[in-house]
Amino acid sequence: MKLPGTVAAGLFSRKGFLEEFEGTLTQTEAEEMAGLCAAITLTMEMQGRLLGRLADQSGWDDCYGWVTWGPEMSIVAIHDSLCVVQGGQASFNQLVKAMTESAGTEPIKPGGKGEPNADIG
């Protein structure tokens, strides 16, 4: 990811395995981040499905990304992609757009490391 403020970027599997990574985090930190991002992504998807059923409205099933931001660092996850960015230096709009375009071509599939991707819907 060649966007301003990007510290690290990576891909993770549904099981939380780190698939690819580039950035300033150590391998251990990147693996921990992948596990965390996979868990949060699955939780967000389940919340979207539940809200869709409770509200009896479509659209909630399309929840596929999330952002957690703080004063120094922020995490953005879209499908199976993650980005760690420096606060105040990154445009979330630009980052989400780039990640959505990239992730939209190969969303992840339930499974594990090395498995082919498929639609998560």
Key terms:
single chain, alpha+beta, five-stranded antiparallel sheet, 2 helices, 36% helix, globular
Walkthrough of the structure:
This protein has 121 residues and is α+β, with helices and mostly antiparallel strands. Helices cover 36% and strands 25% of the residues. The protein contains two helices and five strands; from the N terminus they run E-E-H-E-E-E-H. A hairpin with a 3-residue loop joins strand 3 and strand 4.
Structural class: alpha+beta
Q: What is the count of helical runs? A: 2
- Weakly predicted, low-confidence segments: 106-121
Q: What spatial form do the alpha-carbon principal axes imply?
A: globular
Strand order of the largest sheet: 2-1-5-4-3
The number of distinct β-strands equals 5
Radius of gyration: 14 Å
Order of helices and strands: EEHEEEH
Q: Tell me the helix content.
A: 25-40%
Give the oligomeric state of the chains in this entry, treating copies of one chain as homo and distinct chains as hetero. Answer: single chain
Quote the average pLDDT.
81
What can be said about the biggest beta sheet? Answer: 5 strands, antiparallel
How far apart lie the N and C ends?
25 Å
Approximately how much beta-strand content do the residues carry?
15-25%
List the helices and strands and how they pair.
Layout: E1 6-12, E2 18-23, H1 27-55, E3 65-69, E4 73-78, E5 81-86, H2 92-105
Antiparallel strand pairs: 1-2, 1-5, 3-4, 4-5
Brief characterization of the structure:
This protein has 121 residues and is an alpha+beta fold. Helices cover 36% and strands 25% of the residues.
